[in-house]
Amino acid sequence: MCLPKDLKGPTIQSIATIVGNLLCLNFGLLFGITPAHMKLYQAEQSPLNSIVNADDAAWISGCLFASAAVGALIGGFLSQRVGPRAVLLLSGLLQIPSWFCVHFAYDILHIYSSRIFGGMAGGATFAVLPIFIAEISEEHNSSTLLATIEQWRTVGMLFGFLLGQHLQYEYVSVVAICISCAFTLVFPFSQETPYFHMRKGNMSGLEKSLRWFRGVRRMSVRNRPDFLRELQDLKSNMEKRVIAEANVPQTYLVKVTLITLVLIVGAQLSGIYVILTWSDEILAKDVFGGFSPDSSVVILAFVQFAAATIVVWSASLLRRKILLFSSALICGCAAICLAVCIAMKVRDPFQWLVSGLLLLHTFFANLGMYPLMSLIPSEILPPKLRITLTSMAWFFSWLITFALTQYYYFLSSMIGIHGYFIIFGVACFCVAMFALFMLPETHGKTLAEVQQLMGLGAGADISKNYVPEGGKIHLARY
């Protein structure tokens, strides 16, 4: 990325984050157009060579989530070997054939292919992009940059619903291809993260990357004290082989694994993807005061975006534990109350209650649960664990989302739509209780302080090497 020599480090990090977030925008766009396009494929004016049946239509969404699970697993594996930047570049390249398949599709297999390519790209993106952002950013702006991931995802979903409903079918893919090409043309000029070079023992690459992301290009500013201090710390760690082995108690590993799983899987179990995927069924009763399901889903998408934007503005001030507990608790209460209203078949003049509960659930899920599943792991996990645990957690969360969306008709016939909201409510309650009793407050604390709060004593800090002891396992620090 050819940048002026006087451009400051935080600006460079913000630009790199914005370009990376184009991948989230594109995934949200692909998800957003799916409900509208599924109806088109099932209509007589379908662009495909045959009308799609209900089972095929369900697999269109199912392919997206199933392939996202695979993409998360592969993306996490590759990021340790070729780097987060390289994985994101591969994700951008995968999105291009995904949209070409939509544009030139004349068979349902082409649509499946588009969702598989796009899902794999999206799964890898959501697993790896938080790692990339956390490793290039500085402490004072890391939380804000990480919060933008959800903001751009919700923007993509909002645009997807609007374009799917109002833009001619052939032009939607053209818009998305332009976004994918913009990312693919610009992002290669970014550098790989300093921590990846550190893990690989590449001293020159480490210094070059750090200078690029800190805006240190002029010779006159290369002796800047804060830059030299950070560079020396990284070099010292690499020379002392801090990145080699460290002894980590199994109890600590179990605890951080559980936190990561609960955060990411719990957020997905809030049901936002299920509600929006099957909006025609769930919102079929004109939820928002006589608006059609198409208009209702746009309202929900806008509420998502508003909540995610609030988090971006206030990420540096928010206390993680309180936000997660309160947002998950409100989501759980709203979902359970909504389930009761659906079971009792609430109609006018109390239809506004159903609308309010659904808006409340959607707003707080995107205010706390979704943003924090990127923020908190970056504040409690060392890079090596972060890559492994987040990719595994995303794998399981996408699989669960796949099951709930793909088998919606089967499950709803057994437990009803209200049964779905009971599942969402119980999952949110579990996250709230977990946040209250198990999650340490990470806001304003260093990684070492958080580790100590979680029972990893100062003498066992994973940023140092120690002689192996019984009952310990070995993990790479970076």
Describe this structure in words.
By secondary structure, the chain is mainly alpha-helical. The chain contains 18 helices and 2 strands. The chain has a two-stranded antiparallel sheet with strand order 1-2. Helix 10 crosses helix 17. The longest helix has 33 residues. The C terminus is likely disordered.
First-residue to last-residue Cα separation: 26 Å
Kindly estimate the percentage of residues that lie in beta strands according to DSSP.
Answer: under 5%
H/E element order: HHHHHHHHHEHHHHHHHHHE
Uncertain segments:
241-245, 458-478
Largest sheet, described in full? 2 strands, antiparallel
Helix content: over 70%
Question: What structural class results from the helix and strand content?
Answer: mainly alpha
Q: How many strands? A: 2
Count helical runs: 18
Q: Averaged pLDDT, please?
A: 85
| Spatial sequence of strands, sheet with the most strands | 1-2
What is the rounded Rg?
23 Å
Overall form: globular
SSE layout:
Layout: H1 9-41, H2 54-79, H3 84-103, H4 108-136, H5 142-166, H6 169-186, H7 194-200, H8 203-213, H9 225-239, E1 246-249, H10 250-268, H11 272-277, H12 279-282, H13 293-314, H14 320-343, H15 351-380, H16 383-406, H17 408-437, H18 447-453, E2 472-475
Antiparallel strand pairs: 1-2
Helix pairs in contact: 1-2, 1-3, 1-4, 1-5, 1-6, 2-3, 2-4, 2-16, 3-4, 3-6, 4-5, 4-16, 5-13, 5-15, 7-8, 8-9, 10-15, 10-16, 10-17, 13-15, 14-15, 14-17
